[in-house]
Write the structure tokens for this entry.
Amino acid sequence: MKLTLRVIGTCNVEKLKIEGIKKISVNAGIVSIEFEEEKISIERLVRFLEISGCRVIREERDLKVRIEGMSCAMCVKAVEKTLRSIPGIVEFNLTIGSARILYDPRSVSKEEILEAIRKLGYKPFSEKEKEFELEKEFRKKKLKKMMKHIIFSLIASFLIMFLNFDLADFFLATLTIVYSGRTIFSKAFKSLKSGVLTMEVMYSLGIGSAYFVSVLSTLTKENLNFYEASTFLITFLLLGKYLEERAKGKLEILKIAELQPKKARVLRYGKEVEVAIGEIRIGEILIVKPKEKIPVDGEVVEGESYVDESTITGEAFPKPKKVGDEVFGGTMNLSSTIKVRVKRIEDSLISQMIRIVEEAQFTKPAIQKFADRIVSYFIPSVVSIAIAAFIYWYLISDVFLAFTVMLSVLAVACPCAFGLATPTALLAGISRGIELGILIKRGDVFENLSKATTILLDKTGTITKGLEVTEVVSFIDRDELIEIAASAEKNSQHPIGRAILKRVDSVEDPEEFEEIVGKGVRAKVRGLNVLIGSKTFILENGIEIQKDVENIAEKLEKDKTVVFVSINGKIAGIIGVSEVIRDDAVETIEEMKRILKVGIVTGDSKQASERIARSIGVNFVKSEVLPKDKVDVVKKFQKDGEIVIFVGDGINDAPALAQADVGIAVGNASDLAIDAGDVVLIKNDLKNVFNTIKLGKKVFSKIKQNFFWATIYNAVLIPFSAGLTNLLFGITFRPEWAAAAMSLSSLSVVTNSLLLKRYKVN
């Protein structure tokens, strides 16, 4: 496949050595890429281009569509074929029930694309946030309508069974096909017009054949009455679709949008006013009472309360919130009324989460592409088996048995189970991930997580909490030393300075401040001249370090970073700073080592890195690695055949996160938009890294289970319906039984996927 993009900036694209790219070149702001679609997606290509230094400019419009009625892999094929025929569509990705379409508005309009999908018999919804309520209402009406058709068809079927009178049977069967079965025949007709064989075509063949043979039998007085079979086929097919639709409704990721309330209380002109969410403006003050959801992201400006953030972070315990703390839309205020200043609306945490999980639905794992190839040949193969079975039994028995066998084969075969195996498991896995505070950005991540062999962990912020003051040696009053040092460091951005600041609740502003990069700070606090920094920095400023003080510092330096504090030209104290390992690090890494090789990649010195590595028990450590060189470490492991997970903070580690087979970005809940990983952990928790790996393995295992049962189902029941039960047991496998079994196959796959919603982590 070839992709052409306009870019701004200096691109070093020729240096990109990525599996799947055949050829890449840049000329006058245009990048041309030839790539293998099976190995690398367009989204991943764009990400690599941006990391290489260029900003991608895409003129195409991005249309995300929910498609009601697109329920099987053959439906996907029908929509795919139609989209390929529309000029102006640049690229599209389809899953069952969803589509993402990039199109050129100069060649085709959004409405033309939607109308082309409607002509196939499907109901498309775009602009999810605006049409979400409409889609939910449509689903309710659809299920209600389906139930009416099922009840009518079921009553007609039992009447035909007990009446057993040709004219009455003809009348009831005709009414059932016209009323309950017309959607099946309508979709089949539209599919044939588009040149694609869908399941509706096969259903129509079975129902239509049974009906028309019965009509001919009525006219000719032959004993070939299949009216009962035709109506029961409709009943069981509709019942299966109804149950499947209800089960799939429980998988809807869009339910995350329901977290956000529809209205909010806003303080305007000194009065409390209730407005719609869309009318809120940044900077306004919201009033949130107990047991109410916080409408949008903001900062507490008045009051204190506990807030339940479990829907966003997966954290079980409510968090205390006071003035200055950040709160997120969709979380529940529990105990007291608070006032919140609005900080984000369009780019709120919920909005970011919705965008991220939407993207995940439009990437197909390799196993799904394999399933799509199976489905392409499935229906023609089944029709051939049905015809062959008819001929065989016609020759050795009679036309009634031959026709019964043919109908059973057409009714029992089900490619839908294959088509649903992956998407339903992915949706359930993504949905469960959200509940755990794990955002999966790509659907193929689960497969890579399940096959991963090595995990590389960035040290600072992932394994450690960061720098903390762990030793204070004071030659004056200890509290006074810390207060003066913190005030001197108040304007410093250095990690050591920030660690010292954390030791005091409040600090005064320094009267003077100067930071000497790589050495220390010079400040005036309370009229005192203060120096804080390395031994070299102190000596350069002409301050004497006595031998006993130097001996103390040397002892501390074995496992700490040491800074000297000088006040008015004399050493007042020594502060030791070290990285504090997370409480759960040792236990979690021990668990990881059971299934993966675990290593640290860090820019720290060899001595400091190996000390951390020994204390937590990782398999190996790569030290003194600059952020820009971490990507080379990942490539080296991949070259050696490893499937690599990289865990980092999502900013400095962006190239490595993008290069890894799975990039897991850890951070805080307000930074989702900048993360470059395939997975975003809302809660900065090492245990959640391991939970992500376990979830990936569980989801991919569920996909394989679904394929196994779909395969076994078809492998067993197609021969049975083709007459094997007659040969073995003398029992004819009736078309009604076949239709009921077919309905159960798809339902079993969806139900099996739904079990992921109950998946628990330690």
About this structure: Residues 128-133 have pLDDT under 50 and may be disordered. The first strand starts at residue 2 and ends at 8. The chain has 24 helices and 31 strands.
